[in-house]
Amino acid sequence: MLPPRILRRLILAPLVLVLTVAVILTLPLWLVVITAVSLRLPPPQRRGARFLWFGVAWLVLECGVLAACLGLWVASGLGGRLRRDEFQERHYGLIRWFLGKVYGAAVVIFQLSVTVEEPVLTSDEQAARLTRPVIVLARHAGPGDSFLLVHHLLARYGRQPRIVMKAALQFDPSLDVLINRLPNAFVPRKVSESGILAEIRRLAAGMDADDALVIFPEGGNFTPRRKRAAVQRLEERGLSAEAKRADNLDHLLPPRPGGAIAAIEACPAADVIFVAHTGLDHLITIGDVWRQLPVRAQITAKWWRVPADEVPKEDRISWLYDQWEAIDEWITSTKRVGP
């Protein structure tokens, strides 16, 4: 159960600082322990030192974010002006800095490389890119996919992302403080579908030209068991056509159309962007990451845009399945070509 906000501020945030100092002071001991454990594993699984260095980098960056958030809170008149545009911009800049540093650490420590296949844009399309909001519908798979997507939206495309996230992520103090100051939404685990859709509509309706609402329509990572359960639910609801199309997907769960359609209806001026990616999608659990993370972590992504005036007004569920089948086919072909 998530503690009240005041307890999270008074306990979890200081705990990050204490933990960071403790880990740094005992770092030599941790290195000895990690080395001893790694020697008992086959060479490809000796990843302990890399995970340790990444963990230290993450903790140090968390402390930096919390310190910056405290400074912004003071500068805003003890929180009185946090919702003003200039402070919103500073918080987005802080997220950009944090994710940029995390991405840089992953590049160095895990030799992460991300290749993005983008559509070729004309000069007019380039100029018009930030004149309309976008709704981003992305595949949900692999560790840190949302972090990488938000990093690219901020750093590469100049967007200000809005996301609906699980409330449990507020156990991370820096996410808790920073994300709650921006137009995002944390939803409890047992919230109703109508509650989630209401949050999506709220975020979508308030978007400006440089905003991006990020939705993961699958609702979770792909596993064969989850796919079977999703197909069965569709059949039980009498949606035999959707069930058949979902059963033919090899790498994806069927899209849950409610959130995407709610966002499109709440912001009809928004273009819709679909994002496919693969590379680390077989790493579902912490154990998978520990055992199977390759020496060189490689992610390949592709996105395409559907202009607002080309988004269908009717039969949007079938249209979403069309896009999901295109993502599935792209993943199949990319894995076949793979490194």
Automatic annotation (TrEMBL):
One of its GO terms (molecular function) is 1-acylglycerol-3-phosphate O-acyltransferase activity. Residues 134-280 form the Phospholipid/glycerol acyltransferase domain. The lineage of its organism: Bacteria, Bacillati, Actinomycetota, Actinomycetes, Streptosporangiales. This is 1-acyl-sn-glycerol-3-phosphate acyltransferase. Coiled coil: none annotated. It holds the Pfam family Acyltransferase. Keywords: Acyltransferase, Membrane, Transferase, Transmembrane, Transmembrane helix. InterPro entries: Plipid/glycerol_acylTrfase. The chain crosses the membrane at residues 12-39, 51-74. It comes from the Bacteria. One of its GO terms (cellular component) is endomembrane system.
